[in-house]
Amino acid sequence: MLAPSRVKRYQAHDLNLEGLARRAQRSLDQRPFDWQLEAAAAVMEVYDVVLDIVTGCAKTLCFSLPLLQNEQDIGLVISPLTALMIDQVSGKYGV
After folding, report:
1. Burial class (CB in 10 A: 0-12, 13-18, 19+), 42
2. Is residue 8 a contact partner of residue 73, using CB atoms and an 8 Å limit?
3. Using alpha carbons only, what angle is made at residue 1 by residues 67 and 9, rounded to the nearest 5 degrees?
4. Is the dihedral of CA 16, 21, 24, 26 positive or negative?
5. Domain DEAD/DEAH-box helicase spans what residues (predicted)?
6. Please, is 47 exposed, middle or buried when counting C-beta atoms within 10 Å of its C-beta (0-12, 13-18, 19+)?
7. Domain boundaries, the chain
């Protein structure tokens, strides 16, 4: 038997992106760009999100911002960024 999802699904009218930006500024000392807030909103509304942005432009922030919506939320981010950067610098994948 499958357990029901405990993922909070926000509706667009439940989101306060300006408030989220202020929390990010206070907590992370970084003001998100509009595109980062829009991507975070899509994640919170449980849409699939694909970002085509160059390395080093803070795409990971888009997936971390939803955790600032509610201080009781937890998240697990698995990211091979260090390995990816090393591979790109070494030219392993022709980048």
Report:
1. middle
2. yes
3. 25
4. negative
5. 36-89
6. exposed
7. 12-90
Print pLDDT tens along the chain (95 aa): 788 877 788 899 989 999 999 999 999 999 999 999 999 999 999 999 999 988 788 888 998 899 898 878 777 767 677 777 787 788 766 55
Q: What is the pTM of this model?
A: 0.74
Residue type for position 29: D
CA distances from 54 to 39, 80, 95 (A): 15, 15, 11
Burial of 66 (0-12, 13-18, 19+ CB in 10 A): buried
